[in-house]
Amino acid sequence: MNNAIEVLKECEAFLEGHFLLSSGRHSGAYCQMAKLQQYPDKAAQVLAPVADVLRDMNVDVVVGPAMGGIVYAYELARQLGKRAIFTERVDNVMTLRRFEIKPGERCVIAEDVVTTGISSLETKRVIEEAGGECLGIVCVVDRTTAAAPSPIPILASAAKLDLPNYLPEECPICKEGKLPLVHLGSRKMKEKAQQKQ
């Protein structure tokens, strides 16, 4: 696992500052996983232990939520000799647009980073609506905490990072007022905030 963190640092995939996470929470660190995707050999190396965990689980399909999970789902499926597909947002709702899941197929969700697991819940819903079985999540980086565990079991991760994240109203970085809040993810946060109102 330490090796995975070293690779992330080499790829400049680990950033420090003031970041808006896709969950809506704030953090002083961010894993920009697209940086790892630039190097297929390093991504394969980082994911090899995750693939090893999945080998005996009788997985049929590896499902990567767009955008962050697509490349990692593909790489894991390649290592396992299984099928890789992805879900994507249509009008900011996660859907299965280009692929099919057959009833009873055993699916695992492949994410880049899991912080609260909320994004994965959307993909789990899509899998189950199609008649598939969601076994759980695998990811490159597991950022969940005991206080905020994932609602879906995390089967394996390449790295576990214990990095605090905060509700916006409790964020100490916001209170200091020195660093601007940066959103690097692909989710439309404005629409999500409007849905909460």
What does this structure look like?
- The chain is an alpha/beta fold.
- It is built from 7 helices and 9 strands.
- Strands 5-4-3-6-7-8 form a 6-stranded mixed β-sheet, sandwiched between helices.
- Strand 1 and strand 2 form a beta hairpin.
- The protein is globular, with a radius of gyration of 16 Å.
Averaging pLDDT over every residue, what do you get? 89
Uncertain regions spanning at least 5 consecutive residues: 189-197
Radius of gyration: 16 Å
Strand content: 25-35%
| Sheet with most strands | 6 strands, mixed
Overall spatial form = globular
Instruction: Please estimate the helix content.
Output: 25-40%
Q: What is the count of β-strands?
A: 9
Task: Specify the number of helices.
Answer: 7
Question: What distance lies between the first and last C-alpha atoms, to the nearest angstrom?
Answer: 40 Å
Strand arrangement across the biggest beta sheet? 5-4-3-6-7-8
Order of helices and strands: HEEHHEHEEEHEEEHH
Helix and strand composition category: alpha/beta
